[in-house]
Design brief:
Radius of gyration: 17 Å
Number of helices: 9
Largest sheet: 2 strands, antiparallel
Structural class: mainly alpha
Strand order of the largest sheet: 1-2
Bound molecules: zinc ion
Strand content: under 5%
Distance between the termini: 44 Å
Low-confidence stretches: none
Number of strands: 2
Helix content: 55-70%
Mean pLDDT: 90
Length: 237
């Protein structure tokens, strides 16, 4: 699946589970999500839904922060056995979730930096920063991501769910790749069988462009109407 479809699926996936999560407790994380957490979670999930493709040198995420992401990408490619191997396994999703949660417990500042990075990756995936004038687009993307991160911080957004959202974003990525013809080795390194191989639609083919992307986009609009308390958010007339 293309980067933008993955990013969109991250936003939709998060919005879809918000009503199910509200008021529940999973692995010690209590879900009491306000508008700030819903927006933050959508961006975190969208960014995380691009993480597994860090193992590919031409992926959106690998080129989001230039030298930094390309170096991490090369490292991931080496550590996880090339493209669509270890980074597309349940073990990887678990690892990313645990590392993120550890980061969240370790330092509040580190969480803010990670939210900023994931938001920038998400915006890039969704289409910002894809302009012909690469440098200007990247600067605007970074400023926008920083602005949102700061606004969420000022609003007192709670990130105790961050690790779960990152793991969930990775899982959404696998689901997206399994929906295309490319299989995903979910049980790597124990069993290298590729789930969903040769079934599904072609990456960036007619179905992805004309069906998947529009449907995901419309889903975001519908969920946005459904999830946010609009009467409270809008100024009183
Ligand atoms: Zn992938």
């Amino acid at each position: 699946m293309m980067g933008h479809s993955h990013a969109l699926s991250g936003v939709v996936g998060w919005m879809a589970v918000v009503p199910l999560l509200q008021g529940t407790e999973i692995l010690g994380v209590r879900f009491d999500l306000g508008s700030g957490e819903i927006i933050a979670g959508g961006l975190v999930c969208a960014g995380a839904a691009l993480i597994p493709d860090l193992d590919h040198k031409s992926a959106t995420i690998t080129n989001t922060y230039g030298f930094v992401t390309r170096t991490i990408g090369a490292l991931f490619n080496w550590m996880f056995g090339g493209h669509r191997n270890g980074t597309h396994s349940l073990l990887f999703a678990l690892l990313m979730g645990v590392l993120t949660q550890a980061l969240a417990l370790w330092s509040e500042l580190a969480v803010q930096v990670f939210v900023f990075l994931l938001a920038g990756i998400a915006f890039n995936g969704l289409g910002f920063g894809m302009d012909k004038n690469k440098v200007a687009a990247e600067v605007i993307n970074a400023l926008f991501a920083a602005g949102i991160t700061l606004a969420l911080y000022t609003a007192g957004t709670d990130y105790s769910w961050m690790g779960l959202a990152v793991a969930f974003g990775c899982l959404l990525h696998f689901a997206g790749d399994m929906a295309t013809e490319m299989g995903v080795p979910l049980l790597w390194p124990f069993w290298k069988y590729r789930f969903g191989q040769n079934i599904g639609f072609t990456t960036n083919g007619k179905i992805e462009r004309n069906v998947v992307t529009p449907v995901l986009t419309v889903a975001i609009i519908i969920y946005a109407f459904y999830l946010f308390p609009w009467p409270e958010l809008l100024p009183e007339a």
